[in-house]
Write a structure and sequence with these properties.
Strand content of chain B: 15-25%
Number of strands of chain B: 22
CATH architecture of the largest domain in chain B: 3-Layer(bba) Sandwich
CATH superfamily of the largest domain in chain B: FAD/NAD(P)-binding domain
Helix content of chain A: 25-40%
Helix content of chain B: 25-40%
Largest interface: A-B, 24 and 29 residues
Number of domains of chain B: 2
Oligomer: heterodimer
Distance between the termini of chain A: 17 Å
Strand order of the largest sheet of chain A: 1-2-4-3
CATH class of the largest domain in chain B: Alpha Beta
Radius of gyration of chain A: 11 Å
Radius of gyration of chain B: 21 Å
Order of helices and strands of chain A: EHEHEE
Amino acid sequence: MTNRKLVDARGSFCPGPLMELIAAMKAASIGDELEVLSTDKGSANEIPEWIRKVKHEHLETKEENGVWHVVVRKAK
Amino acid sequence: MKILVVGGGMGGTILANNLARRLAGELRAGKARITMLSASDKHMYQPGLLYLAVGRATPDELYRDQRSLLEPGIEFHVDPVEKFELDKNQVTAKSGKTYGYDVIAIATGSRPVANEIPGLAENAEQFYTEESALKMFKRLQQFQGGRVVIAVGVPHKCPMAPLEITFMLYDYLKDRGILDKTKVHYTYPIGRTHSLENVAKWATPEMERLGITYETLFNMKEVDGAKKVVRSEEGSEAAFDLLITIPAHRGMEVIEKNGLGQRGFIPTHRHRLNMEGRDNVFVVGDTTNLPISKAGSTAHFEAEALAENIAAMVKMGTPVRDYDGKVFCFIEAGKDRATYAMFNYQNPPDPKAPTRAVHWFKMAYNKLYWASARGLL
């Protein structure tokens, strides 16, 4: 059973959603899912781009009421 | 009301001093008590380490006696906490003594952990402690030219430091007359040169103007000391003659050992600053898990909001204000010019071009800081 961890980066200009995710990955285990909440629409592209580059898995992106939800899985 | 402040850094000191002023009457009447526990009898001005690393400050300028910064009425003990028993509203410290409280504020800070990246501690210079900053300066004095790489871990305190050390290093090399023999290469973990978009918009063309190369989306994976390369999780590598790092950080070991937060960062409410699930436990500064800059100014503004709230809880039984995410960071853009970024949860920063005036303001603040620590500025 996977653990889904919430990374609430709404209103985060610094460090920002991607950096919050990079930090959260360190505390996560392989197989864990992380859901990043962001009010910065750039995250919707920025996060999957990094995830692909480091070979984790991008599961889903959706936007609800001005908040982007980007779900990824730690793959290694 | 017994108030315990754990940690004598920026956040804890400003909090305790603000509370002591707001609750002066209650302290005198014996209706309130403020106790601070710290691991050190000294208070360090951490932003000064940047200047120490490039020979622009001396170690003595970074310290004051902690007790000398505290309002009368604050009971101060150099007695670091070893055990937190939040269910019992008490902590046990190194001396073996147990301190009970009605309200506790945890402000224990964060620490660099270069040893998490294989090869980094042995092969890179750092400047986040006095010892490492002095070592870095001595290394810079011996440096005769070559390829300098700056590599940054996540998270780290002082978000501006990667840019500041790069630009201050550039001026140092220029003043030494070895810029023509040196290549400065900046790397950064996300897809631009700084986490703040408007800061990156200024910094990137500035680097290009100065001939500083950069690579973004670079998260350190390992350092090969024999081949003198730093490799990234993203699959690239950067060769160096001198590697300067701002390592990733964790909260203090005591926070992890007591199970208060993963990697030492305590889950904290973003406005009320209480530990999630605890109404009488508050968290200030680097040791929160908030998605906010780990910076002295963050601790400062959090401490001000929290002091107002705790004082209101004593006087009226209720907190009165939310912390709005305010951060203010100077950005040194070299040896004689600076700008700043000011923002909160709602409003991004809009930094202006660096000027000598803001640099001199920062120079003045390096001295005025002690007034901030005392809760006066």
